[in-house]
Amino acid sequence: MCAAFGVSGAPWQVWLTSPDGAHPLQRSADLRWQTMPAAEGPSVTVDPAQPLQEFLGVGAAMTDASAALINQRLRGGARRAFLAEIFDARHGLGLDVMRVTIGGSDFSQRHYTLDDTDGNTADPSLRSYQDAPETLEVRALMREARSVNPQLRIMASPWSAPAWMKSSSSLVGGHLRPQYYAAFADYLLRFADGYAAAGIPLYALTVQNEPAYEAPDYASMRLDAADRARFIIEALGPRLAKRPDGPQLLEWDHNWTQPGSPLSVLAHPQAARHVQGVAWHCYGGSPKVQEWVRAAAPGKDAYITECSSGDWQKEWPDTFRSMVGTVLIDGIRSGARAVLLWNLALDEDHGPHVGGCKNCRGLVTLGADGSIERHAEYYALAHIARFVRPGARVIGSTSSAETIRSVAFADQARRQVTLVLQNTGTDATDLSLRLGRRSARLHLEAGTVATVSGPAFAL
Fold first, then answer.
1. CA triplet 226, 227, 228: central angle to 5 degrees?
2. How many CB atoms are closer than 10 A to CB 46?
3. pLDDT per residue as tens digits for the range 218-230
4. Run of H or E residues at 183
5. Which of 92, 129, 216, 456 is exposed most, by the fewest CB atoms within 10 A?
């Protein structure tokens, strides 16, 4: 538990989650600051005078699977209450960023795109383009979510181009044929137009989900760096340039293991001028590569657009530890402007899905009886989502102990400061928190995560 230190200074709220998850995100005693020298021992220093990237928030993916479960298993008031819980920034979890798929993914119930033709007949003018029922279902939920949280931003990614555009003539695997670059660019923007017409314009778009991987049993498409650069230069980039209010373009959308691939695209000035940032997944490598890419390509933002846990990890404490420490804290410290996990909701059998991951876990499990089980991923995001609003700035924070991870934020007006801490060690720690000329004491048990948040004061 956390004990207050002294009686003077502005109190800050303290919220704790223990590594066993028995009492997630529990309010503890307020933290009070003193205008006195910090105590000896481990310390974390917060520096609001060191503003870093603007932060958009945290979120997840509204996949076809998630949307179907929300609509089928949560009826009437239960459904509305769930959406309020997930997206209400004042009284709920307050997710501020969501990802949707352009056509089907592995977490759909069938293989499809939005321009499938009989016999894979070529359709470069997209006469057969039609929003699938799944697309309409997801879009309707996103529109409802935006009514709950008007600041909600939406990102979109395709898992495959229509089969008639591909070398494999299949949604599973294959490359995009160059003669259909223009048609694929129009296809992506047609999807964006549908969201804009519904009053929920896309914030960002990626060219291809995981372009370095051809999955054996679900929609996928390999699109190497040279091909992505050419596609952006010749087709998608010029079209986006004519849309000043169109979505931003994010490059890569794959793992931390291959930073050279997005850098190769950004090395083309004609491609780089159309790209606003780089999207990353967590399934290999280190978030440190985000810093390397930003240093090599100044002005390009970083986003973590996908990360999933599952039964290959113990939910508590392994999943919680890695989600908070590596994905959220280290990912944001390495420049991420947003962090999105994978499925918002799955069922008790880790689906529905068509191929792909058979033991992934969503933020929540929706039971057949309408029950809601909130997982470690949910509470990992909650340690930021409930306290940090879009437009906040990541600010400097320095830990004197290797076992203490930290990331700090200040709101737009610099009136509120939030600090997220994780004790990765095997022993409890008495921390000295330092902010300007003030200090406070925080007791943090081994494996515990704390969010401390309160009003900034004159330094």
1. 95
2. 23
3. 999 999 999 999 9
4. helix 181-197
5. 216
Task: Tell me the C-alpha distance between 225 and 33, whole Å.
Answer: 51
Q: Residue ranges of the chain with pLDDT lower than 50?
A: 1-8, 459
- Alpha-carbon distance 239 to 353, whole Å? 34
Closest-CA residue to 186 (of 244, 118, 129, 117): 129
* Measured distance CA(327)–CA(332) in Å, rounded: 8
DSSP 37: P
SS3 196: helix
pLDDT of residue 11: 83
Query: 361 with 309: CB under 8 angstroms?
Result: yes
At CA 112, angle to CA 208 and CA 224, rounded to 5? 20
CB of 342 closer than 8 Å to CB of 360: yes
Q: What is the pLDDT of residue 8?
A: 43
Q: For residue 370, count other CB atoms closer than 10 A to its CB.
A: 13
The 10s digit of each residue's pLDDT in 351-384 is 999 999 999 999 999 999 999 999 999 999 999 9
Query: 99 near 59, Cβ under 8 Å?
Result: yes
> Cα 391–298–394 angle (5° rounding)?
30
Is residue 181 classed as helix, strand or coil in its secondary structure? Answer: helix
Q: In degrees to the nearest 10, what's the CA dihedral of 99, 101, 102, 103?
A: -160
Residue 245 carries which side chain, given as an amino acid letter?
Answer: D
Is the Cα torsion angle 56, 263, 232, 243 positive or negative in sign?
positive
Answer yes or no: are the C-beta atoms of 300 and 294 closer than 8 Å.
Answer: yes
DSSP 75-142: -THHHHHHHHHHH-TTTS----EEEEEES--TTSSS---SS--GGG---TT-TT----HHHHHHHHHH
From the list 253, 134, 279, 241, the residue with the least C-alpha distance to 194 is: 134
- In this prediction, residue 6 carries a pLDDT of 31
